[in-house]
Design goal:
The structure is a single chain. By secondary structure, the chain is mostly helical.
Amino acid sequence: MFSENQIISEKIRGSAALGLFLAVISAAILIFLPDEESKKTAAEESIAVTENEDDFLFDITDEDLADFVLDTSKKDDQGLKFYRQAESKAAVEWFYARITGSTEIAHAVLEEADANDIPLSLAFALAHTESSFNVNAYHKNTNGSIDRGLFQLNNLSFPKLTETDFYDPAVSAKYGLSHLKFCISTAGNEIAGLAMYNAGTVKVRRNGTPQITLNYISQIEHYRAVLDDSFESEVIAFFSDEVLKKLAAR
C-alpha cells in the first residue's frame, strides 16, 4: 500500500540530506535564472512574495551545479508517457486518485499537467506542498493578500477569478500549472522555476533565495521522488514487457 503516511515518513527519512540539497538549489537558482530585464513581466509575480528576507547561500562549484541541473532536466517522465497511452491511462488515473483521495482532483491535475507538458509527479508534488490536496485551503499573507485552493492562487495575482473559482480544483489546476509552466520556461530549469513560483522573480534575483523557499523546493522534490518510486512499483511493474516496449517506442 502507498498512503499519505508513508509519503510523510519517506520525507522525514530524507531530512539528513536536506543541507546539501538546499545548497545545490540555492546556487542553481542564482546561476540559472535568466538575467534579461526584458523577460520580467507582471505575470512573474503571480504567486505572492514570501515575507522572509533571510539569505541562504552556499559555495558550490559550477561543475557540481551543472551536473545537478542536467540530472533534473533529463528525467524521463514515465507518468506523462503512461497517461497519454490508452493501454495505461486508467492505471495512472487510479494511482493519483488514490494519492489525492479524490478522482476530481486527480483528473484536474492530470489534464492540466498533460496540457502544459509538466511531469505528473512534479505537478502533484506542487499541489501537495501548496495545499495537501485540500481544495478549500486558505492562507492570508502578511501583505493582506489571500492564497486559496489547491494551488494556492493569490487574489491579487488573479483578480478576475471569483471566490468560487479559487476553490474549484479544475480552475486552480489550470491557472496554477500554466503559471508553473511559465516560470520553468522563463527560468530555464525546474528548480529556478519553482523558486519563481513561490517567491517571485524580482525577490529571488535581488536577495538570493530565502530559506523558506529553499525548504519549499526541497519538500516538493522529495515528495516527487517518492511518487516516482511508488509509480514505478505500483503502476509500471504491472505492465508486461511487451506493453512497456510499445510505450518506450512511442
